[in-house]
Design brief:
The protein is α/β, with parallel strands linked by helices. 27% of the residues lie in helices and 26% in strands. A hairpin with a 2-residue loop joins strand 5 and strand 6. It is globular and about 50 Å long. It starts with a helix and ends in a 25-residue tail after the last strand.
């Protein structure tokens, strides 16, 4: 099975939160991970790229804002864009160059499809890519899963 077939199968698989099984693509720099994700636009999906190495946890999990004596998490702009698009894939690029706190924000958003206090529509999917720790510039092991353990292992 080729990469595009795997990507299509994961993207168009129904789940309890709508569509798409989050997949982590790992490979050497320059092998085309990002360009493959952009191919999903051919299938009518808006592609939103979030580069993990330049993000803070609030950029993914929402910004705390006081509201009538409580705190709300205001969703970041990308959540508004994909909600409006209804059919989209959010691509967390360079995931393992993100500090552990950013990785944790990405993980919740990917698995629960919640950004800030906003539930993303069922037509929004997530995927991610990274270089191996040995090949990544300032790469970290993925905090929640440990080194080289596939997402969903142990579920």
């Amino acid at each position: 099975m080729n990469t595009l077939s795997i990507m299509k199968a994961a993207t168009f698989t129904p789940t309890s939160h709508g569509w798409g099984v989050p997949i982590l693509w790992e490979g050497k720099p320059g092998v085309g991970k990002t360009s493959r994700i952009h191919e999903l636009a051919k299938f009518g999906l808006h592609v939103e790229v979030l580069v993990g190495s330049v993000r803070a946890p609030t950029d993914i999990g929402g910004f705390p804002m006081p509201d009538n004596g409580t705190m709300k998490l205001i969703p970041p702009h990308f959540a508004e864009v994909v909600t409006k698009a209804k059919r989209a894939v959010i691509f967390a690029d360079e995931l393992n160059t993100s500090p552990p706190a950013v990785q944790a924000a990405f993980l919740r958003a990917m698995l629960e499809k919640v950004v800030g206090d906003t539930q993303l529509p069922g037509g929004v999917r997530w995927t991610a890519a990274c270089n191996s720790v040995e090949d990544a510039a300032a790469g970290w092991d993925l905090a929640a899963l440990g080194p080289h353990q596939p997402w969903g292992a142990g579920d």
